[in-house]
Design a protein that fits this description.
11 helices; mainly alpha; two-stranded antiparallel sheet; single chain; 4 strands; globular
Length: 296
């Protein structure tokens, strides 16, 4: 499925990811964490398909379980002792629940960042911050492209080395280690040269100079303004809930959360709608497309 949310104005995309990342890190209430995690997983799968499913199953679920188990082993705070370890340290209900909550928070943030890397391309980032912070935005855009570009380049170098019998899969253990160091050296040289060439290229074009104009295909149209208005309203509603203490939960020394009321349910619905905005947009666009196809 084509991601329609990516076609919105860069400011809409950026605002959305900043808000969901911030809220996912701050709100430790279980309901908010379940909403954020399920929304991030749904958008990740919608955005990346089978690759997203594989990423969540192979990496995120084991990481979540590992994080959830490690916290009560090393953190013994809490008043509800369930049992004692062989070394005499207690395992408490509060530390287990906090471990699960912290693990959900970490996994949710990682999945949101994986979606951010797909939607917020470097040209969108430079469009937003190029005039305000030209040097920083250029460096940040290069950092964001670091992993995918360098992974692709190291495959090219590795294949070239394999043709002359100097790949990490060829020879004995010592030869493989030597070949790996050679590939790493070539990769480092390429990375440094590439960074210098990019910086020189941008400087020769007058990037960051006062009064310099640049062409851009991004325009803030009517649909961007509608989504921006809806998003602002939902953010304001969730922020009001945060001020009134509806969005968080105390874990230590004992668990304490606010009582669920009609107002808190309204905050949950607003947060769910905010997190699911890209998924809802994609579903609406898909329904429109199928409706058009059925008429032809």
């Amino acid at each position: 499925m084509k991601d329609s949310f990516s076609t919105f104005h860069p400011f809409v995309n950026f605002l959305y990811f900043v808000v969901v990342l911030l809220f996912s890190m701050v709100f430790m209430h279980p309901i908010f964490q379940v909403i954020a995690l399920s929304s991030a997983v749904a958008y990740s799968i919608m955005l990346k398909g089978k690759k997203g499913i594989r990423f969540n199953l192979l990496y995120m679920i084991p990481f979540l379980l590992f994080m959830a188990v490690m916290n009560p082993v090393f953190n013994h705070q809490g008043v509800t002792i369930l049992f004692y370890l062989n070394n005499g340290n207690p395992i408490t209900k509060e530390s287990i629940l906090y471990g699960v909550a912290a693990a959900c928070m970490f996994v949710t943030v990682i999945i949101w960042f994986s979606c951010y890397n797909v939607v917020m391309t470097s040209d969108k980032f430079i469009y937003i911050f190029g005039k305000i912070l030209p040097a920083l935005s250029l460096i940040f855009s290069m950092v964001l492209r670091f992993v995918p570009r360098y992974l692709a380049q190291i495959k090219v170098i590795s294949n070239a080395q394999k043709c002359i019998g100097r790949d990490v899969s060829q020879g004995n253990l010592l030869a493989r280690a030597r070949n790996g160091i050679t590939i790493l050296s070539i990769m480092t040289t390429w990375a440094l040269e590439n960074a210098i060439e990019t910086a020189d290229s941008m400087r020769s074009r007058g990037y960051g100079l006062p009064g310099r104009t640049s062409f851009s295909i991004f325009r803030l149209d009517a649909r961007d303004k509608v989504v921006l208005l809806i998003m602002t309203g939902l953010i304001a509603l969730v922020a009001v809930g945060a001020v009134l203490g509806e969005n968080t939960m105390r874990f230590y020394p004992s668990i304490k959360a606010s009582t669920i009321t009609p107002f808190s349910i309204l905050i949950y619905i607003a947060y769910f709608a905010l997190c699911m905005i890209p998924v809802l947009i994609n579903m609406v666009e898909e329904m429109k497309w199928k409706s058009i196809e059925s008429k032809n």
